[in-house]
Amino acid sequence: MPSSDNNSTDKTLYDYDLFVIGAGSGGVRLARMSAGMGKKVAVAEDRYLGGTCVNVGCVPKKLFVYASHILEDLEDGRGYGWSTDGKLKFNWQTLLKNKNTEIERLNGIYHNLLVNSGAEIINGRARFIDNNTVEVNGKHITAKRIVIATGSWPFVPKFEGSELAITSNEFFFVDELPKTAVVVGGGYIAIEMAGILNGLGVDTTLVYRGNLFLRGFDEEVRAFVKEEVLKKGIKLQFNDNVVALNKTNDELIQVSFESGQVSTAGLVLYATGRTPHLQDLGLENVDIQLNSKGQVVVNEQFETSVKNIYALGDVTGGMQLTPVALAEGMFLAHNLFNVHKPELIDYTNIATAVFCQPNIATVGLSEEQAREEYDDISIFVSSFKALKHTLSGRDERSLMKMIVDKKTDVVLGVHMVGSDAGEIIQGISIALKAGATKKIFDQTIGIHPTAAEEFVTMREETR
Ligand SMILES: Cc1cc2nc3c(=O)[nH]c(=O)nc-3n(C[C@H](O)[C@H](O)[C@H](O)COP(=O)(O)OP(=O)(O)OC[C@H]3O[C@@H](n4cnc5c(N)ncnc54)[C@H](O)[C@@H]3O)c2cc1C
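Above: the input record for the complex with flavin-adenine dinucleotide. Below: its predicted structure, written as C-alpha coordinates.
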Protein backbone atom coordinates (compact mmCIF):
# COMPACT_ATOMS: atom_id res chain seq x y z
CA MET A 1 0.00 0.00 0.00
CA PRO A 2 1.40 3.44 -0.82
CA SER A 3 1.49 5.96 1.97
CA SER A 4 0.81 9.65 1.64
CA ASP A 5 2.09 12.71 3.40
CA ASN A 6 1.48 12.86 7.14
CA ASN A 7 -0.75 15.91 7.23
CA SER A 8 -3.07 15.49 4.29
CA THR A 9 -6.20 13.45 3.80
CA ASP A 10 -5.80 11.18 0.83
CA LYS A 11 -9.29 9.87 0.27
CA THR A 12 -8.27 8.22 -2.97
CA LEU A 13 -5.83 5.95 -1.18
CA TYR A 14 -7.58 5.14 2.08
CA ASP A 15 -11.08 4.99 3.47
CA TYR A 16 -10.00 6.81 6.65
CA ASP A 17 -7.20 9.03 7.89
CA LEU A 18 -7.36 7.24 11.22
CA PHE A 19 -8.86 3.92 12.27
CA VAL A 20 -9.02 3.28 16.00
CA ILE A 21 -9.50 -0.25 17.30
CA GLY A 22 -11.30 -0.08 20.65
CA ALA A 23 -13.69 2.57 21.96
CA GLY A 24 -12.39 2.59 25.52
CA SER A 25 -10.92 5.45 27.51
CA GLY A 26 -7.96 6.05 25.17
CA GLY A 27 -9.64 5.15 21.88
CA VAL A 28 -12.67 7.38 22.32
CA ARG A 29 -10.56 10.37 23.35
CA LEU A 30 -8.24 9.90 20.37
CA ALA A 31 -11.04 9.33 17.86
CA ARG A 32 -13.17 12.28 18.84
CA MET A 33 -10.26 14.72 19.13
CA SER A 34 -8.91 13.65 15.74
CA ALA A 35 -12.35 13.90 14.11
CA GLY A 36 -12.73 17.31 15.74
CA MET A 37 -9.55 18.36 13.93
CA GLY A 38 -11.25 17.60 10.62
CA LYS A 39 -9.84 14.14 10.01
CA LYS A 40 -11.84 11.22 8.67
CA VAL A 41 -11.98 8.83 11.60
CA ALA A 42 -13.62 5.50 12.39
CA VAL A 43 -13.55 3.58 15.65
CA ALA A 44 -14.37 -0.12 15.91
CA GLU A 45 -15.84 -1.50 19.13
CA ASP A 46 -17.14 -5.02 19.64
CA ARG A 47 -18.46 -4.89 23.21
CA TYR A 48 -19.30 -1.62 24.86
CA LEU A 49 -18.67 2.07 24.29
CA GLY A 50 -16.45 3.55 26.96
CA GLY A 51 -14.44 0.35 27.39
CA THR A 52 -13.36 -1.23 30.64
CA CYS A 53 -13.56 1.85 32.84
CA VAL A 54 -17.17 2.69 32.09
CA ASN A 55 -18.55 -0.83 31.82
CA VAL A 56 -16.55 -3.19 34.03
CA GLY A 57 -14.00 -1.02 35.78
CA CYS A 58 -13.72 2.32 37.56
CA VAL A 59 -17.33 3.46 37.32
CA PRO A 60 -19.35 0.37 38.37
CA LYS A 61 -16.67 -0.39 40.92
CA LYS A 62 -16.96 3.02 42.58
CA LEU A 63 -20.76 2.70 42.59
CA PHE A 64 -20.43 -0.68 44.31
CA VAL A 65 -17.93 0.78 46.78
CA TYR A 66 -20.50 3.44 47.70
CA ALA A 67 -23.13 0.73 48.11
CA SER A 68 -20.86 -1.35 50.30
CA HIS A 69 -20.10 1.52 52.66
CA ILE A 70 -23.67 2.49 53.44
CA LEU A 71 -24.25 0.02 56.25
CA GLU A 72 -21.15 1.30 58.00
CA ASP A 73 -22.34 4.90 57.58
CA LEU A 74 -25.68 3.94 59.14
CA GLU A 75 -23.92 2.21 62.02
CA ASP A 76 -21.75 5.29 62.51
CA GLY A 77 -24.95 7.31 62.77
CA ARG A 78 -25.85 5.69 66.09
CA GLY A 79 -23.27 7.72 68.00
CA TYR A 80 -24.83 10.80 66.44
CA GLY A 81 -28.29 9.97 67.69
CA TRP A 82 -29.68 8.16 64.64
CA SER A 83 -31.38 4.79 64.82
CA THR A 84 -33.42 2.58 62.51
CA ASP A 85 -36.25 0.29 63.49
CA GLY A 86 -34.18 -2.71 62.40
CA LYS A 87 -35.90 -3.18 59.02
CA LEU A 88 -33.05 -2.04 56.82
CA LYS A 89 -32.58 -4.35 53.85
CA PHE A 90 -30.18 -4.55 50.96
CA ASN A 91 -31.35 -5.64 47.52
CA TRP A 92 -28.58 -6.64 45.13
CA GLN A 93 -30.94 -6.66 42.12
CA THR A 94 -31.87 -3.04 42.75
CA LEU A 95 -28.22 -2.06 42.88
CA LEU A 96 -27.49 -4.01 39.67
CA LYS A 97 -30.46 -2.51 37.84
CA ASN A 98 -29.61 1.04 38.86
CA LYS A 99 -25.95 0.53 38.05
CA ASN A 100 -26.84 -0.85 34.61
CA THR A 101 -29.13 2.10 33.91
CA GLU A 102 -26.34 4.52 34.78
CA ILE A 103 -23.83 2.66 32.61
CA GLU A 104 -26.28 2.69 29.68
CA ARG A 105 -26.61 6.44 30.15
CA LEU A 106 -22.82 6.75 30.00
CA ASN A 107 -22.67 4.50 26.90
CA GLY A 108 -25.10 6.93 25.28
CA ILE A 109 -22.91 9.89 26.21
CA TYR A 110 -19.88 8.21 24.65
CA HIS A 111 -21.92 7.47 21.53
CA ASN A 112 -22.95 11.11 21.23
CA LEU A 113 -19.46 12.41 21.90
CA LEU A 114 -18.11 10.31 19.06
CA VAL A 115 -20.90 10.96 16.59
CA ASN A 116 -21.02 14.68 17.32
CA SER A 117 -17.29 14.94 16.75
CA GLY A 118 -17.76 13.43 13.30
CA ALA A 119 -16.13 10.08 14.07
CA GLU A 120 -17.85 6.99 12.71
CA ILE A 121 -18.60 4.11 15.07
CA ILE A 122 -18.32 0.63 13.59
CA ASN A 123 -19.84 -2.06 15.80
CA GLY A 124 -17.72 -5.14 15.44
CA ARG A 125 -14.41 -6.76 16.10
CA ALA A 126 -11.51 -5.45 14.06
CA ARG A 127 -8.72 -7.63 12.75
CA PHE A 128 -5.58 -6.64 10.87
CA ILE A 129 -5.32 -7.80 7.28
CA ASP A 130 -2.18 -5.78 6.53
CA ASN A 131 -0.51 -2.58 7.73
CA ASN A 132 -3.26 -0.38 6.29
CA THR A 133 -6.25 -2.71 6.24
CA VAL A 134 -8.55 -4.08 8.91
CA GLU A 135 -11.50 -6.39 8.57
CA VAL A 136 -14.69 -5.70 10.55
CA ASN A 137 -17.85 -7.75 10.07
CA GLY A 138 -16.34 -9.30 6.94
CA LYS A 139 -15.65 -5.93 5.33
CA HIS A 140 -12.15 -4.69 4.48
CA ILE A 141 -11.48 -1.12 5.53
CA THR A 142 -8.33 0.84 4.76
CA ALA A 143 -6.77 3.62 6.79
CA LYS A 144 -3.63 5.65 6.61
CA ARG A 145 -3.01 5.20 10.32
CA ILE A 146 -4.35 2.49 12.61
CA VAL A 147 -4.30 2.64 16.39
CA ILE A 148 -4.50 -0.33 18.73
CA ALA A 149 -6.45 0.84 21.79
CA THR A 150 -7.82 -2.55 22.74
CA GLY A 151 -7.11 -2.43 26.47
CA SER A 152 -6.50 -5.41 28.72
CA TRP A 153 -8.34 -8.50 29.86
CA PRO A 154 -8.42 -10.34 33.22
CA PHE A 155 -6.00 -13.21 33.50
CA VAL A 156 -6.98 -16.42 35.32
CA PRO A 157 -4.27 -19.10 35.54
CA LYS A 158 -5.26 -22.59 34.35
CA PHE A 159 -5.70 -25.16 37.13
CA GLU A 160 -8.24 -27.83 38.13
CA GLY A 161 -11.68 -26.20 38.08
CA SER A 162 -10.38 -22.73 37.15
CA GLU A 163 -13.39 -22.32 34.84
CA LEU A 164 -15.55 -22.05 37.98
CA ALA A 165 -13.83 -18.80 38.94
CA ILE A 166 -15.17 -15.47 37.76
CA THR A 167 -13.31 -12.21 37.20
CA SER A 168 -14.23 -8.57 37.71
CA ASN A 169 -15.85 -8.69 34.24
CA GLU A 170 -18.54 -11.09 35.45
CA PHE A 171 -18.76 -9.85 39.02
CA PHE A 172 -20.50 -6.66 37.87
CA PHE A 173 -23.38 -8.79 36.56
CA VAL A 174 -23.72 -11.77 38.95
CA ASP A 175 -27.39 -12.66 39.50
CA GLU A 176 -27.14 -13.17 43.21
CA LEU A 177 -24.83 -12.08 45.93
CA PRO A 178 -23.31 -15.15 47.61
CA LYS A 179 -23.07 -15.68 51.36
CA THR A 180 -19.38 -16.48 51.15
CA ALA A 181 -16.70 -15.44 48.70
CA VAL A 182 -13.03 -16.08 48.06
CA VAL A 183 -11.15 -13.34 46.24
CA VAL A 184 -7.74 -14.28 44.86
CA GLY A 185 -5.06 -11.69 44.16
CA GLY A 186 -2.94 -9.07 45.86
CA GLY A 187 -3.37 -6.06 43.59
CA TYR A 188 -5.69 -3.11 43.92
CA ILE A 189 -8.60 -4.75 42.09
CA ALA A 190 -8.54 -7.79 44.41
CA ILE A 191 -8.59 -5.68 47.56
CA GLU A 192 -11.31 -3.40 46.20
CA MET A 193 -13.50 -6.36 45.23
CA ALA A 194 -12.97 -7.95 48.66
CA GLY A 195 -13.99 -4.65 50.28
CA ILE A 196 -17.16 -4.45 48.20
CA LEU A 197 -18.23 -8.01 48.98
CA ASN A 198 -17.43 -7.66 52.66
CA GLY A 199 -19.28 -4.35 52.93
CA LEU A 200 -22.34 -5.90 51.31
CA GLY A 201 -22.40 -8.56 54.02
CA VAL A 202 -20.62 -11.40 52.23
CA ASP A 203 -18.25 -13.47 54.37
CA THR A 204 -15.08 -12.71 52.38
CA THR A 205 -11.61 -14.26 52.34
CA LEU A 206 -8.81 -12.59 50.39
CA VAL A 207 -6.16 -15.06 49.30
CA TYR A 208 -2.78 -13.92 48.12
CA ARG A 209 0.34 -15.99 47.47
CA GLY A 210 2.70 -13.26 48.78
CA ASN A 211 3.11 -12.22 52.39
CA LEU A 212 1.39 -8.84 52.01
CA PHE A 213 -0.90 -7.36 49.37
CA LEU A 214 -0.41 -4.18 47.29
CA ARG A 215 3.15 -4.80 46.18
CA GLY A 216 4.75 -1.58 44.96
CA PHE A 217 2.90 0.64 47.44
CA ASP A 218 4.70 2.18 50.41
CA GLU A 219 5.47 -0.59 52.94
CA GLU A 220 4.06 1.34 55.89
CA VAL A 221 0.85 1.97 53.94
CA ARG A 222 0.54 -1.72 53.08
CA ALA A 223 0.99 -2.80 56.70
CA PHE A 224 -1.44 -0.14 57.93
CA VAL A 225 -4.11 -1.14 55.41
CA LYS A 226 -3.74 -4.77 56.40
CA GLU A 227 -4.72 -3.90 59.98
CA GLU A 228 -7.65 -1.72 58.88
CA VAL A 229 -8.94 -4.33 56.43
CA LEU A 230 -8.79 -6.99 59.15
CA LYS A 231 -10.84 -4.73 61.43
CA LYS A 232 -13.53 -4.59 58.73
CA GLY A 233 -13.87 -8.36 58.93
CA ILE A 234 -12.16 -9.47 55.71
CA LYS A 235 -10.23 -12.69 56.31
CA LEU A 236 -6.71 -12.44 54.94
CA GLN A 237 -5.05 -15.64 53.81
CA PHE A 238 -1.54 -14.66 52.71
CA ASN A 239 1.28 -17.00 51.62
CA ASP A 240 -1.32 -19.35 50.18
CA ASN A 241 -2.87 -20.09 46.83
CA VAL A 242 -5.79 -21.96 45.32
CA VAL A 243 -4.90 -25.30 43.73
CA ALA A 244 -8.34 -26.64 42.78
CA LEU A 245 -11.99 -25.66 42.55
CA ASN A 246 -14.79 -28.23 42.55
CA LYS A 247 -18.56 -27.87 42.50
CA THR A 248 -20.26 -29.32 45.55
CA ASN A 249 -23.76 -30.86 45.60
CA ASP A 250 -25.31 -27.72 46.99
CA GLU A 251 -23.89 -25.58 44.17
CA LEU A 252 -21.16 -24.12 46.32
CA ILE A 253 -17.56 -24.21 45.15
CA GLN A 254 -15.09 -26.25 47.14
CA VAL A 255 -11.80 -24.39 47.27
CA SER A 256 -8.61 -26.37 47.91
CA PHE A 257 -5.55 -24.41 48.94
CA GLU A 258 -1.83 -25.04 48.62
CA SER A 259 -1.64 -25.04 52.44
CA GLY A 260 -3.90 -28.10 52.51
CA GLN A 261 -6.85 -26.13 53.80
CA VAL A 262 -10.22 -26.72 52.12
CA SER A 263 -13.23 -24.40 52.30
CA THR A 264 -16.39 -23.64 50.36
CA ALA A 265 -17.58 -20.41 48.79
CA GLY A 266 -20.54 -19.21 46.79
CA LEU A 267 -18.26 -17.23 44.53
CA VAL A 268 -14.56 -17.35 43.68
CA LEU A 269 -13.28 -14.17 42.09
CA TYR A 270 -9.87 -14.03 40.47
CA ALA A 271 -8.11 -10.69 40.24
CA THR A 272 -4.65 -11.98 39.48
CA GLY A 273 -3.58 -9.52 36.83
CA ARG A 274 -4.54 -8.45 33.35
CA THR A 275 -3.08 -9.29 29.97
CA PRO A 276 -3.08 -7.16 26.82
CA HIS A 277 -6.26 -7.65 24.80
CA LEU A 278 -4.80 -8.83 21.50
CA GLN A 279 -6.83 -11.98 20.82
CA ASP A 280 -7.93 -12.42 17.19
CA LEU A 281 -6.49 -9.06 16.26
CA GLY A 282 -4.71 -10.54 13.24
CA LEU A 283 -1.29 -9.66 14.61
CA GLU A 284 0.14 -12.43 12.43
CA ASN A 285 -0.56 -10.15 9.47
CA VAL A 286 1.44 -7.18 10.76
CA ASP A 287 4.93 -7.06 12.15
CA ILE A 288 4.17 -5.53 15.54
CA GLN A 289 6.75 -6.04 18.25
CA LEU A 290 5.53 -7.26 21.64
CA ASN A 291 7.55 -7.31 24.86
CA SER A 292 8.06 -10.33 27.13
CA LYS A 293 4.68 -9.67 28.79
CA GLY A 294 2.96 -9.67 25.40
CA GLN A 295 2.31 -5.91 25.55
CA VAL A 296 2.65 -3.78 22.43
CA VAL A 297 6.01 -2.00 22.41
CA VAL A 298 5.69 1.71 21.68
CA ASN A 299 7.99 4.70 21.87
CA GLU A 300 7.07 7.92 23.67
CA GLN A 301 5.02 8.99 20.65
CA PHE A 302 3.04 5.73 20.74
CA GLU A 303 4.53 4.48 17.49
CA THR A 304 4.80 0.70 17.24
CA SER A 305 7.42 -1.15 15.21
CA VAL A 306 5.19 -0.62 12.15
CA LYS A 307 5.43 2.97 10.93
CA ASN A 308 1.74 3.80 10.54
CA ILE A 309 0.41 1.66 13.42
CA TYR A 310 0.20 3.13 16.91
CA ALA A 311 -0.88 1.75 20.28
CA LEU A 312 -1.86 3.33 23.58
CA GLY A 313 -3.49 2.65 26.93
CA ASP A 314 -3.54 -0.65 28.80
CA VAL A 315 -2.46 -2.71 25.79
CA THR A 316 0.99 -1.13 26.03
CA GLY A 317 1.42 -1.95 29.73
CA GLY A 318 2.33 1.23 31.53
CA MET A 319 0.28 2.52 34.43
CA GLN A 320 -3.04 1.04 33.29
CA LEU A 321 -5.22 3.88 34.52
CA THR A 322 -8.01 5.67 32.73
CA PRO A 323 -6.57 9.20 33.02
CA VAL A 324 -3.29 7.89 31.58
CA ALA A 325 -5.09 6.33 28.58
CA LEU A 326 -7.01 9.62 28.12
CA ALA A 327 -3.79 11.65 28.20
CA GLU A 328 -2.21 9.30 25.66
CA GLY A 329 -5.22 9.54 23.34
CA MET A 330 -5.14 13.32 23.55
CA PHE A 331 -1.39 13.44 22.97
CA LEU A 332 -1.59 11.21 19.90
CA ALA A 333 -4.44 13.19 18.32
CA HIS A 334 -2.46 16.44 18.67
CA ASN A 335 0.82 14.87 17.68
CA LEU A 336 -0.64 13.42 14.49
CA PHE A 337 -2.97 16.16 13.37
CA ASN A 338 -2.27 19.46 15.10
CA VAL A 339 0.27 21.85 13.64
CA HIS A 340 1.26 22.71 17.21
CA LYS A 341 2.93 19.60 18.56
CA PRO A 342 2.21 18.69 22.19
CA GLU A 343 4.80 18.14 24.89
CA LEU A 344 5.59 14.51 25.66
CA ILE A 345 3.54 13.05 28.51
CA ASP A 346 5.23 13.36 31.89
CA TYR A 347 4.52 10.17 33.82
CA THR A 348 6.05 11.37 37.08
CA ASN A 349 3.90 12.14 40.11
CA ILE A 350 0.70 10.57 38.77
CA ALA A 351 -1.63 10.20 41.73
CA THR A 352 -3.59 6.97 42.17
CA ALA A 353 -6.21 5.73 44.57
CA VAL A 354 -7.29 2.33 45.80
CA PHE A 355 -10.95 2.31 46.73
CA CYS A 356 -10.56 -0.26 49.44
CA GLN A 357 -12.02 0.63 52.81
CA PRO A 358 -10.61 2.90 54.10
CA ASN A 359 -9.31 4.34 50.82
CA ILE A 360 -5.65 4.65 49.91
CA ALA A 361 -4.26 7.41 47.73
CA THR A 362 -0.71 8.04 46.81
CA VAL A 363 1.46 10.34 44.72
CA GLY A 364 5.19 10.28 44.13
CA LEU A 365 7.74 7.98 45.69
CA SER A 366 7.25 5.42 48.43
CA GLU A 367 9.71 5.57 51.33
CA GLU A 368 11.51 2.55 49.89
CA GLN A 369 11.87 4.12 46.42
CA ALA A 370 13.00 7.42 47.94
CA ARG A 371 15.68 5.65 50.03
CA GLU A 372 17.04 4.05 46.87
CA GLU A 373 17.09 7.25 44.86
CA TYR A 374 18.09 9.87 47.45
CA ASP A 375 20.92 10.04 50.00
CA ASP A 376 19.05 11.70 52.81
CA ILE A 377 15.30 11.84 53.30
CA SER A 378 12.94 12.93 56.07
CA ILE A 379 9.80 11.00 56.84
CA PHE A 380 6.76 12.61 58.41
CA VAL A 381 4.00 10.28 59.55
CA SER A 382 0.75 10.93 61.33
CA SER A 383 -1.73 8.24 62.34
CA PHE A 384 -4.94 9.31 64.02
CA LYS A 385 -8.62 8.64 64.56
CA ALA A 386 -10.68 10.93 62.32
CA LEU A 387 -12.96 13.38 64.16
CA LYS A 388 -16.03 11.59 62.80
CA HIS A 389 -15.09 8.43 64.66
CA THR A 390 -14.89 10.11 68.06
CA LEU A 391 -18.69 9.93 68.23
CA SER A 392 -19.26 7.01 65.87
CA GLY A 393 -17.01 4.93 68.10
CA ARG A 394 -15.61 3.12 65.07
CA ASP A 395 -12.13 1.78 65.54
CA GLU A 396 -10.82 3.10 62.23
CA ARG A 397 -7.60 5.02 61.92
CA SER A 398 -6.16 7.20 59.18
CA LEU A 399 -2.56 7.44 58.07
CA MET A 400 -0.80 10.35 56.42
CA LYS A 401 2.77 10.22 55.30
CA MET A 402 5.12 12.59 53.59
CA ILE A 403 8.60 11.92 52.22
CA VAL A 404 10.97 14.86 51.78
CA ASP A 405 14.42 15.20 50.19
CA LYS A 406 16.54 16.72 52.98
CA LYS A 407 18.96 18.36 50.56
CA THR A 408 16.41 20.32 48.49
CA ASP A 409 13.38 20.20 50.85
CA VAL A 410 11.32 18.99 47.85
CA VAL A 411 8.39 16.72 48.75
CA LEU A 412 9.00 13.41 47.00
CA GLY A 413 5.94 11.42 47.99
CA VAL A 414 2.66 11.78 49.84
CA HIS A 415 0.50 8.87 50.96
CA MET A 416 -2.79 8.65 52.72
CA VAL A 417 -5.07 5.95 54.07
CA GLY A 418 -8.44 7.24 55.16
CA SER A 419 -11.78 8.57 54.10
CA ASP A 420 -11.77 10.36 50.73
CA ALA A 421 -8.02 9.86 50.35
CA GLY A 422 -8.34 10.14 46.56
CA GLU A 423 -10.09 13.50 46.78
CA ILE A 424 -7.36 14.87 49.06
CA ILE A 425 -4.33 13.48 47.23
CA GLN A 426 -5.59 14.78 43.86
CA GLY A 427 -5.02 18.33 45.17
CA ILE A 428 -1.70 17.43 46.74
CA SER A 429 -0.52 15.95 43.42
CA ILE A 430 -0.70 19.42 41.86
CA ALA A 431 1.64 20.70 44.56
CA LEU A 432 4.07 17.86 43.87
CA LYS A 433 3.85 18.46 40.13
CA ALA A 434 4.73 22.10 40.83
CA GLY A 435 7.78 20.93 42.80
CA ALA A 436 6.52 22.08 46.20
CA THR A 437 8.95 22.01 49.10
CA LYS A 438 8.08 20.99 52.64
CA LYS A 439 8.45 24.68 53.57
CA ILE A 440 5.59 25.54 51.18
CA PHE A 441 3.40 22.87 52.78
CA ASP A 442 4.32 24.30 56.21
CA GLN A 443 3.52 27.86 55.09
CA THR A 444 0.09 26.78 53.88
CA ILE A 445 -2.66 27.49 56.38
CA GLY A 446 -4.95 24.55 56.85
CA ILE A 447 -8.72 24.16 56.61
CA HIS A 448 -10.03 23.30 60.04
CA PRO A 449 -11.38 20.86 61.04
CA THR A 450 -10.40 18.48 58.25
CA ALA A 451 -8.18 15.43 57.96
CA ALA A 452 -6.39 17.10 55.05
CA GLU A 453 -5.03 19.89 57.27
CA GLU A 454 -2.70 17.29 58.75
CA PHE A 455 -0.59 17.58 55.57
CA VAL A 456 0.20 21.23 56.33
CA THR A 457 0.82 20.75 60.04
CA MET A 458 3.36 17.91 60.03
CA ARG A 459 6.14 19.68 61.95
CA GLU A 460 7.93 16.81 63.70
CA GLU A 461 10.08 14.56 61.58
CA THR A 462 9.17 10.93 62.38
CA ARG A 463 12.49 9.50 61.17
C1 LIG B 1 -12.18 -3.65 37.99
C2 LIG B 1 -11.36 -2.50 37.45
C3 LIG B 1 -11.33 -1.31 38.16
C4 LIG B 1 -10.61 -0.24 37.67
N1 LIG B 1 -10.59 0.91 38.39
C5 LIG B 1 -9.90 1.97 37.94
C6 LIG B 1 -9.91 3.20 38.66
O1 LIG B 1 -10.52 3.30 39.73
N2 LIG B 1 -9.23 4.25 38.16
C7 LIG B 1 -8.53 4.15 36.98
O2 LIG B 1 -7.93 5.14 36.56
N3 LIG B 1 -8.49 3.00 36.27
C8 LIG B 1 -9.17 1.92 36.73
N4 LIG B 1 -9.16 0.75 36.00
C9 LIG B 1 -8.31 0.67 34.79
C10 LIG B 1 -8.98 1.32 33.58
O3 LIG B 1 -10.26 0.78 33.39
C11 LIG B 1 -8.12 1.10 32.35
O4 LIG B 1 -6.80 1.54 32.60
C12 LIG B 1 -8.66 1.83 31.13
O5 LIG B 1 -9.96 1.44 30.83
C13 LIG B 1 -7.76 1.57 29.92
O6 LIG B 1 -8.27 2.21 28.79
P1 LIG B 1 -7.94 1.66 27.34
O7 LIG B 1 -8.47 2.68 26.39
O8 LIG B 1 -6.51 1.30 27.24
O9 LIG B 1 -8.73 0.29 27.21
P2 LIG B 1 -10.25 -0.10 27.51
O10 LIG B 1 -10.95 0.95 28.26
O11 LIG B 1 -10.20 -1.45 28.08
O12 LIG B 1 -10.91 -0.15 26.06
C14 LIG B 1 -10.56 -1.10 25.11
C15 LIG B 1 -11.76 -1.37 24.23
O13 LIG B 1 -11.34 -2.07 23.07
C16 LIG B 1 -12.35 -3.00 22.73
N5 LIG B 1 -11.72 -4.00 21.87
C17 LIG B 1 -10.72 -4.87 22.19
N6 LIG B 1 -10.33 -5.56 21.11
C18 LIG B 1 -11.10 -5.13 20.07
C19 LIG B 1 -11.16 -5.46 18.69
N7 LIG B 1 -10.33 -6.36 18.15
N8 LIG B 1 -12.08 -4.83 17.92
C20 LIG B 1 -12.93 -3.91 18.46
N9 LIG B 1 -12.90 -3.54 19.75
C21 LIG B 1 -11.99 -4.15 20.54
C22 LIG B 1 -12.82 -3.53 24.08
O14 LIG B 1 -14.10 -4.11 23.97
C23 LIG B 1 -12.81 -2.25 24.90
O15 LIG B 1 -14.05 -1.59 24.88
C24 LIG B 1 -9.89 -0.35 36.44
C25 LIG B 1 -9.92 -1.55 35.73
C26 LIG B 1 -10.65 -2.61 36.23
C27 LIG B 1 -10.68 -3.89 35.44
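Notes for the reader.
The chain has twelve helices and 21 strands.
The longest strand covers residues 139-148.
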